[in-house]
Amino acid sequence: MIIEICANSFESARTAEKAGADRIELCVELSVGGLTPSFGLLEKVISALTIPVHVLIRPRTGNFTYSGDELDVMLRDIQQCKMLGAAGIVSGILTPDHQIDIRSTSALRSAASDMEFTFHRAFDWCKDPYSSLDELKQMSVTRLLSSGRENQAIDGIELLKELKSRSEECIEIMPGGGINISNVISFKESGFDSIHLSASEKIQTLPKPPEVSMHGPLEEGVISVSSFQKIQAIQNLLK
């Protein structure tokens, strides 16, 4: 089973590879679901790691419905990823009523060209998962990252198994969302070929809270990094 780690920094990406991860999804700002990383970070990660690096293309938080200008930014980001040698793109666009925006997503898929393309968890907002899966199959998307339309993938595992059955091996179904050492074996036993998780832990980097907040409701000084111990434990369990 392939272990894909959602890494939010160079430290997390390097730790994931050392712990035995098979692939990286590189992003920043995990606390808001992930955003597109800087290209300095991407270049450093690609140059230092030997495992495949997939890149999240998500220009902002809020929703998955983007303007024409935002789509242009996403397309430019994909071209830069291609130039830097990324192995894959992770992205997706929805309409305002939470259906797959076929035209815009097809543009992203076309820009990705021969790179792998994963449609991310925007899928979990779609009203009809089965027709949405059919649309992704028609776009020749490589894989679908989904929690089965639940907050935790383990709670959506029955839908995930149904999607896998309906995929007809045209598109890989990759569970993601709350996967950890306590539930990962359920996904292996259900026949999934890969899983997606951050395996992260929080670290406080400041000795005391600052007088002026820079993060609003977020915890000052707390960073999230992928844990070597968590990844290795899962890797050993799946062997």
Keywords:
alpha/beta; TIM Barrel; two-stranded antiparallel sheet; 36% helix
Provide the fold topology.
Blueprint: E1 2-7, H1 10-19, E2 23-26, H2 39-48, E3 53-56, H3 68-84, E4 88-91, H4 102-112, E5 116-119, H5 129-138, E6 143-146, H6 157-166, E7 172-175, H7 184-189, E8 194-197, E9 200-204, E10 222-226, H8 228-238
Parallel strand pairs: 1-2, 1-8, 2-3, 3-4, 4-5, 5-6, 6-7
Antiparallel strand pairs: 9-10
Helix pairs in contact: 1-8, 3-4
CATH homologous superfamily - what is it?
Copper homeostasis (CutC) domain
Largest sheet: 8 strands, parallel
Contiguous uncertain segments of 5+ residues: none
- What is the overall silhouette? globular
The share of residues in extended strands comes to 15-25%
Secondary-structure element pattern, one letter each: EHEHEHEHEHEHEHEEEH
Calculate Rg over CA atoms: 17 Å
Main β-sheet, spatial strand arrangement: 7-6-5-4-3-2-1-8
Report helical residue fraction.
Answer: 25-40%
